[in-house]
Amino acid sequence: MLVEKVGKNMSKKTVGVITNNNSDILEVLKGSCADIVVMKPEEIKLYELDSMYSIAILGGTEEKPLLFRPRERVIIEKLLQSGKKIFSEYCGSIGNIYCAPPESTRFDRLVFCAEDIKVDFVEVGDILDEQCNTRIKPYANACSGNRPILQYAKLKAHSKTIVDKKLLSEISNRALWFDDPKNLLVCCFRICNFAEARFSPMMKWRAIVKFIASWLCNEDVNVSVKAPYELRPYDESISFKKQVEECFYRSVNWFINSGMLIDDGRNGVMEGLATEVFPDGEQRRLAYVRDDCTAETALVFFMRYFLDHDRRSKYISDNLMSVCFNFLQCKEGKFKGMLRWTQEAWGVCYQDDAARAIISQLLICLYTGEKTYLKECKDALDFLIRTTGTDGTRVQRTDNINLTEERLKMLADTPGNFISAHYNAYYLAALLLAYKITGNDEYKAIGIKGLETIMSHYPDTRREHSETQEMCRLVLPLSWLYWVTGEPKHKEWLYRVTEDLVRLKHPSGAYLEWDSGYKADRNNAGEGEESTLLTKNGDPVADLLYSLNWLPMAFAQAYLVTKDSYFRRLWEEIAKFFVSAQIHSDNKMIDGAWARAMDVDLMEVYGINADVGWGPWAIETGWTVSVIGAGLATGLSNDKLEQVFIKE
Predict the structure, then answer these.
(1) Most CB contacts within 10 A, which of 537, 539, 642, 645?
(2) What is the CA radius of gyration of the chain?
(3) How far, in whole angstroms, is CA 572 from its chain's centroid?
(4) Backbone region of residue 102 per phi and psi (left: phi > 0; alpha: psi in -120 to 50; beta: other values)
(5) pLDDT in tens, 234-255
(6) pTM score > 0.90 for this model?
(7) H-type helices in 194-348, by residue range?
(8) Could you tell me if 60 and 190 are in contact, meaning their C-beta atoms sit under 8 angstroms apart?
């Protein structure tokens, strides 16, 4: 319908918004004092655009960039030349600018570059993330040379970088800028759903959107769009037990509400959520059924049953363990006992993953006195032993296709020389726990030998992502080593590693990523590889996938073994952190979970996106949610479990 002389003789400014769908920025504009007139691109000839104060073109609501037809393009160009303010987002061509086809920003980051433009809370060199977005690179010869507000770059830095001539010289990497004429503000990526797509840091992005909206309306605009999630800090005025219990139950409910469980566990559990958060806020599911994720999820549901006798949780736990030991385990031949990594990687065995599956079932056996799947756990350990070196360490993975008789003999007859807690510590812990339950001396001997080999090199072990990760992975195995041997030397190792770790403690209760000498294998990862979150020591970044996730269970077990209130206090402190770090959201896919990367100064999901598969927003059913949840439940079950350990 034709709007007659919109904006004339009216006290309010009128902003025309050209878009095909609703979006976060449209909602921001609607909350301003301006009159907002919304139209589709093909409808603009029906409106008196020249009577409006400014125009916002929001093309980012769709995957394909907005491109005006010639009839409508003429109207837009006349408005531009008349001096009218135009914000052009994800528009294939405007003015002299035209762009290349869309491409992913998965491994790119944005840098704030503006010197003469002031945006609250944002400084030159600040790094901002828009997750797995889409951009259209402007052709350099079609852009002005004006300094950009935001510029794309590939960076190995946590939150700040240097803006130099080299960075600014990449004209086609500009993301947000004023072109010529200066009344044209161009954004070449999909910013319009900045909140839904979890742009971070949230406060800085809100400030940038506020700048855009205020420029369009020529007034201060409040950005009040609802955040996609929030973190609620631990409340000292509320009972500790109540808050940790609520946190635990919310984590268990996540498996059900997010759809990660398959047929109540009868067909396993999905691996989790991939790190990519797309421009519309969607996040891809990882549908693989893994041995570790399956058993670890079984343990967290068992712990729910252990706490409150919920029968459905026991049913789900039993279903999941059945998948792990009845379908993902090799039952005969020379690979008998091998726990297959996934239903796809059928002939692959990672011993740290297999070990955590074994530990999950062994803990159930320990806590109940039952022997369900105990034979299968022994078969799995026996297979791992057959491929373990004379020093008690094992290579990080074996592939059945390569396990000839000669290869099997070589693995067993030579030192493994794989001095890595990441890959070997939980395997050795599984052996020690199995010894406690079965009395098998071979398990004890290899468990002791392997951990003594690792500790003979500590702290210079082979690190995967960080030194912090190695320490976090050692606390539980060293607790069980002391539990098995009672030797003062082994107790001393437990306290030494714990005290080294405590030196990295942040006021939030988290332990920062740290790597003395930057020796971790993943510190120099290239694009398409797995990557650490660490860029330099001192960054306020915590890793909830590879480091901190192990600590609730580790500290709880250390207390049960030593009866030292020091470890109980450490468990309580890390439990408080996980209460504060748990996601609260209307989005059931993330509500109750924890994501990998946490900036513990901001208390926000934020960190470098270089990892090929497990970046800041990766959420694993095993490794993260189940491991943290089971660790919280272990501490909550302290009184009952103390009786189990007294018997042992």
Answers:
(1) 539
(2) 28
(3) 23
(4) beta
(5) 999 999 999 999 999 999 999 9
(6) yes
(7) 202-217, 240-257, 291-308, 311-322
(8) yes
